[in-house]
Each structure stands twice: as structure tokens, then as C-alpha cells.
């Protein structure tokens, strides 16, 4: 069975990647031509008024803290120290001391494609639907029990699931906001800075799916390129495996569900490794051919453009009449409804961004008046400079997009989910907030040398705030209008292509003879056809957005409103060295040792304080939650702990947990059984968070320096779980990307 499984995975992966790589090679030439043409001709939109920060989170940690994780290998809930670094990976350490000593983490999670669930019932519903016909009977124990009322579950349709819990609702809200920010960031894993590879990749994915009659948005277009392609393979492979393997799983319903999740994760890892190898080879080949292709483009640019326009005119004459009828009958009547559904939550979200920024700066100014001095300004500016990356303070902005509902339009236009539009708008919100904050701190930094006294400082802050808000209003209007146009195209174009396919797609082959052979790498009939279809609806979309701006209902600037650059030297300031308020004004020029710098890394989100008498997590010692005992016991590294007897006893143990001696954390935990290549193969027999921003930022507490570290145990694949390249090769235990053989650390690329 294992040999058959590995063979099936390799065969399906090879088939899908073979077809995709053909699409990618075609789209690469088109994307390269478009990039060179844009470089030569230039067609930029309105100039942004706000500055853009190049390295927003260097040497910062988004959040760190303790929470309980369910370890599937021994069915235990264990205390883990979780760190969310600037790259938004979830890094789980055995305890805080292990992190401070730079010991390797237990688990690395790239959260792309995951959903954050705060209810066990939600999770069980998804698990029950993943394996049709396998549902635990009423009264039987479910696949997962949580010892508290505040679970946090990371669910993925293909990869491993992660189970966490905390003690209070306040902690759950904060962790949920942090996890959602991680998912949002990791989902946006394809770099927009790449002007050739990124559009070539996304267009190739779209063309491949359309060749399978799959139009419309796709929820699993998330993560980096290899993750997206792995999702593409799994979308076709998993139903086949479910049909073949599902009926042959043995045991109780809960055991079959657990086994299926393990099999799916193992297959996903195998697919990932094989996909990465084949995609990297295809990319390398295109890069090798790029210089020659680019030379041809620059030499024959005019001829290529003329040839493409001639082809477009012929296709337009054939397609446009049919497309215009389709637009008039099936799209035009609904454009205003779609736009209104998009505009209301999006504009509310951007208005909330403005309000949060205004409130934070105003509170800072008032506190400076009351407390006084440059020292307090530096303290507050260090916090304000990363406001956009504070998941809890930004949550009131992000949650406005939860109102986005397309109602009946979603079914009409084959939009599987609105999540792609929600996340895109939220990413724009975060970027606009950071641009506003960076512009504010740059202007204020420029003014500091000219100010005399506290009154001058406060007046200057207020004046700069007003200037930045005007710039924000203009830029946010530009960003929103672009977002609305792109979203309308994403919704309507696939619908039109699907409608026109029966009458138009079969006739496109006859236009191939109009393309000169020398230019065939840069001009594709299919792409030109889609451009013609886009032109048929673009006029109506532009008109709808323009009319919305004229109404001023959502605080949009009209297209005729052009804000001239009132700060001609501002963008030059933005090119300078990034401002470090602490180093520049703290009076401590000497550099910190690397180890101290790691321990004292600035944290964007402050740790929850023990304000309500809630039992704090222990910092030093590993808590082994043993049911039926009043105090947690320390693990014996040589003896695997026994399984818990019941969730009620675990809950009692959690409530009674107390602080342990940090020295005891030096004992490393070894609780892992050897990993099999495909878990479960032995059973294949015959076969809304509220806005919680404080009135003013408060500095985080410094961590005391621990003693020198000790030798560490190198975690196995079972311990490390999901790597950033979270997957393994064929029938062999997967190795983390960049893991050092010496066991000094687990390196990764999120």
C-alpha cells in the first residue's frame, strides 16, 4: 500500500506540474515583454503622497508568550513559548529559557492556507466533512477535547492541524488576532516586487485551472509559489486518495479521522518536495533563456507591438460583439450592487485606520503635555512606529471587512469565497497605516532640531498630524479605487470567460497563424483574447467607480482631483537611513551583544498582564499536565508520560498550575516516537475581537539575562512539525529547510 501511495503521488504531481510548467513557460515570455514595455513606455498612476517604509520590522518581534499546545504523539497538553518574529512565522519553543538561549525550536509553522478556529465544534464540523461517511456516533468521544473553554485551532484542508488553548477569553482574543495576522501575511507569499515571475506564475495558475473548466476565485491561491502548486496538486489528488483509502481505514470513527489527517499531511509533504524540485527546475530554465528573450524584445519592440495590435484587432472583431451582449445582459445590471457591497466595509475599514492613527498620535501628544520631555516622546514613538503591525490595535480596522457579503451575487458569479477580497483589503489597510506612521515620524524627526520646549513640540506634532491625515485621505482614496476596480475584474472576467467559452474558445486556434514565429514567445492568442474580453467590461467598471467618487458617499476623491506634491523633499527624506528612536535619543551608543539583543528584541504587542487574578503561565519550567494531581510534575526524559484520563482532570490541572523553578527547564524533553514515512500506513489493511488599544502605549518589560545555555536535544521531524517548507520527500522523513546538522538551531525561510 505504501509503495502504491508513493507511486500515485509521484505520478499525479508529475502530471500536474508538467502541464503547469508548460503554461508557466508561455506566460513567462508574455510577462517579460509586458515588463520591458512598461519600463520603456511608463504608465504610472497618481504619485503617492505618503512615504513607504522599506524594512518595517527589522529586529522586531510581533508577539511572544506562553500557551498550551496539544501534542498528538503522546496525547498531552504542554506549555509552549510561542514567538512570532518579523516574518510572521509561528515558532514554538519548549519554554522561554530555550528561546533566550537560542536553542532550536520545537515547531516551525508557516500558516499560509490555515484557518483560525476558536471553537471545537467548528473544528469537528470541518473534520467530519473531510472524510465523508465517517462521523462519530452520538455520545462517543470526539477526536479532540480541550481542557479550557478557550481553544485556538489551526486547520488546513491538507496539512497538519495544530491545537492550542489558553486560560482566559482576553488571551484568546489577543492570540486569535496575532494568528490571523500571521495567516494574512503568509497567504500573501508571492512577492509583488517581482515584475516578471509573479505575474507569470499567477497567470499560469489561472490558465491551468481554466483548462480544467475551473473559473472564478480560488481560496487556496495562498502562500509562496511551491505552496500554491502543492495546493493545486492536492486539489486533484486528495479526492482520488479519499475514494481509494477512505473505505480501507480501520478502527473507530475518531481513529479513522485522525489517521486520515496524518495521511493527508504526509502526502502533502511528499507533494511539496516533488513540486519544489520541478518548479525550481522550470524557473531555472526560464531564467537561463531570459537574456536572449529580453534582447529580442528590446530590439524588435515596435514590430512585436504592431503584430500584437494586428492580432487583437482580428480577435476583437470576432469576440467583441458577443462579449458586449453578454456584458449588457449578465454583468452590467449587477456592477453597482457588487461595488456597493465592496465599498461599504472597505471604506469603513480605511476610516477606522484613520481614526486609530489619529487617536494614537493625539494620546501621545496629550501624554507628552502631561509627562513632558523628549524622553517620553522617544518612548511613545518607538511604539507608534510599529502601530500597523500591532494585530490587536489593528483588529478594529480588519474586522470591518467581516461585513463583506455578496449575497446572491456570489453564486451568480461563481465566487467561492469572499476571503480573497477581505484579506487583500486588510493588507492595503496595514500598508496605508504604516505609510501614514512612517511619514509622520519622518516629518517629526526632521522638525526636532528646530523645536524649543514642550509647547513647540506639541504644536509641531499637531501640525504634522494634520498634514499626514490630508495625505492619507488622498492615498487611501487612490488605493481603494484601484482595489474596487481589481475586485470587480476578478469577479466578472472569469464569469464572462466561462459564458463565452462554448462559442469563442474553440475558434481561437485559427488566429495563431497571425503571429510571426519569432514573436510567438511574447504574444499568445489566449492572453490577447482575455484582454479583449476585459476591454468589453472595463468601461462599465471605470464608469461605476467614477460615479461612486462623484457621490462622495465613501469619501473618495474624483479622478480629476490631483494632489500636487506639497512636500517636494519628503520623498528624499524617505530614502535616508531608517530612524531608530531608542538608539538615537537614548544616550547609549555602545552596541549590545547579539545574545542580549535577541533577549531584548522590541516587541510590537505587549504581553497580557495578570490584571484579573488569572493564573500566570510558568516561564522557566515545562508544565506536564497530569490529570488528577494538584501540581504539575516535571517530566522524566527517559520515561514517556502516560495519557490523561479525562478532560475535566486536565482542566483542574491547568487551573492549579503554579510557577516553576526556571533552572529545571534545562532538562530537555524527549517524548517522541520514531516517525513513519506515512502515518497511518499500518491501518491500510486489505485494501469578532473587540478593539483593545490603550489610551497610550506603554514600554514592555525587559527580560533578565539568563545563565549560559547547555547542550540541546535536536528535535526530530515529529517535534518540529510544520517547517516553512513544511513537507517531506518520497517515503523518507522530511528535513526542515536549512536545518543545521549540528543541532545548533532550526533555520528556515518563511
UniProtKB/TrEMBL annotation:
Residues 60-184 form the PH domain. Residues 625-646, 660-750 are annotated as: Disordered. Pfam families: Niban2, PH_Niban2. InterPro entries: Niban-like, Niban_1/2/3_dom, PH-like_dom_sf, PH_domain. It comes from the Eukaryota. Residues 660-669 have a biased composition (Basic and acidic residues). PANTHER family: NIBAN FAMILY MEMBER (PTHR14392), PROTEIN NIBAN 2 (PTHR14392:SF2). Belongs to the Niban family. This is NIBL1 protein. It comes from Oceanodroma tethys (Wedge-rumped storm-petrel).
